[in-house]
Amino acid sequence: MAGVTGVLGGFRDFLMRGNVVELAVAVVIGAAFTNIVNAMVEGVINPVVGAFGTRDLSAYELCLRGDCAGDSGVAIRWGSVVSATLTFLITAAVVYFLMILPLTRFVARMRRKEETGEVAPLPTELDLLTEIRDELIARRTGRPVATVGAQRSGETEPPAGPAAGPVRE
Prior knowledge:
Number of domains: 2
Number of strands: 2
Strand content: under 5%
CATH class of the largest domain: Mainly Alpha
CATH architecture of the largest domain: Orthogonal Bundle
CATH topology of the largest domain: Non-ribosomal Peptide Synthetase Peptidyl Carrier Protein, Chain A
Strand order of the largest sheet: 1-2
Structural class: mainly alpha
Helix content: 55-70%
Radius of gyration: 34 Å
């Protein structure tokens, strides 16, 4: 029984990893997006094409042999190919203009900020500990934090009282 729990636990961990969950969300959103594109093709593109001919692109076909109206003919349904191609082009255009282009611009903007030095470097652990120490000394002695940090460089004399020991409040 422990082997089954281990296998099921491993499968659960696999499913809960970020990439798999994100992929599942992307598939669901992609399916919904496909419905939107299909509705646009059927509701907008096909009627525009219908103004010049038939409303349904899939009705266009080329009859190679016999009567295509019956079962004896051989038909090439090129209208379905045109409809699928239009659906693909609309989907690709929407994905590019609503997802890829804004993301590319955002990444380029972030790179420019990094190159110009607008992004402040993160403080090191030593810097943070120094700030904490200076703040604790300033609270204990009543001096401003700016003068406490200056004592390391020798600009002012050390504070009066035991500042080197642990601070207890």
